[in-house]
């Protein structure tokens, strides 16, 4: 893959236009806002930095990196192990459901596309075996794990895949806050700029980490996620 193709593939996979449903999830941000816990854009940025350091990096990027390396080695069991451990580390049921639905949608999308860089990541071979395992209920198909496998099959390196995942997660959280009408476009873009160094830092730190290093610590986000399951007023599925 040329550098231009790699960049375009990374942009495509991190774009909210990718029809995998990630825009339907706020991962607790909606509940924070509904409970009046976030008043300013800076507070929103601090919250998302906490997500990056407590969940996205040490859990999602670790799972993605392990899945990417396992895919490169043709190791289906390694991919399944990443799926299992990430599911165990994700406590709120809505967070797990959002993740697995997005993973399933990405696999469905690949099954329909047979041109360009995605053609190398079609649902045959190792990716087909993983898809079969998801459909048979032998594994959950969490989005970071699916994305790690897809990026590897499409020719993206592990760190590039981690950046795609972390950037997509951050823009998804910021976008959720914006769609709830609390913050304008400029404020959201300013926070995204502030978070770029943190995205780079956590990808550098965790993309090569061993699966046994996976952890997740965001207790307040977990509590908000669980409260969201019973909330009367909800725009997002998590």
From TrEMBL:
InterPro entries, sorted: UreF, UreF_sf
Keyword Transmembrane helix appears in the UniProt entry: no
Transmembrane segments: none
GO molecular function: nickel cation binding
Keyword Aminoacyl-tRNA synthetase: no
One Pfam entry name: UreF
Keywords, sorted A to Z: Chaperone, Nickel insertion
HAMAP family (UniProt xref): UreF (MF_01385)
Protein name per the record: Urease accessory protein UreF
């Amino acid at each position: 893959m040329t550098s231009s193709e790699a960049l375009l593939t990374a942009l495509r996979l991190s774009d909210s236009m990718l029809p995998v449903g990630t825009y339907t999830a706020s991962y607790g941000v909606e509940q924070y806002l509904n409970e009046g816990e976030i008043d300013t854009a800076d507070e929103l940025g601090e919250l998302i930095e906490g997500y990056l350091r407590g969940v996205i990096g040490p859990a999602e990027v670790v799972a993605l990196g392990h899945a990417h390396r396992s895919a490169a080695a043709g190791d289906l069991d390694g991919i399944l192990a990443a799926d299992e451990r990430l599911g165990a580390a994700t406590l709120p049921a809505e967070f797990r459901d959002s993740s697995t639905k997005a993973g399933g949608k990405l696999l469905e999308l690949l099954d329909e596309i047979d041109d360009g860089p995605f053609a190398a990541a079609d649902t045959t071979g190792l990716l087909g075996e993983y898809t079969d395992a998801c459909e048979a209920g032998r594994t959950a198909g969490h989005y970071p794990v699916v994305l790690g496998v897809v990026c590897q099959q499409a020719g993206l390196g592990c760190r590039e895949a981690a950046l795609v995942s972390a950037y997509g997660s951050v823009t998804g959280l910021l976008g959720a806050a914006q769609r709830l009408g609390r913050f304008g476009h400029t404020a959201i873009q300013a926070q995204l700029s502030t978070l770029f160094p943190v995205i780079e830092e956590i990808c550098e730190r965790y993309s090569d980490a061993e699966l046994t290093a996976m952890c997740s610590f965001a207790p307040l986000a977990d509590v908000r996620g669980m409260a969201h399951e019973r909330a009367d007023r909800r725009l997002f599925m998590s």
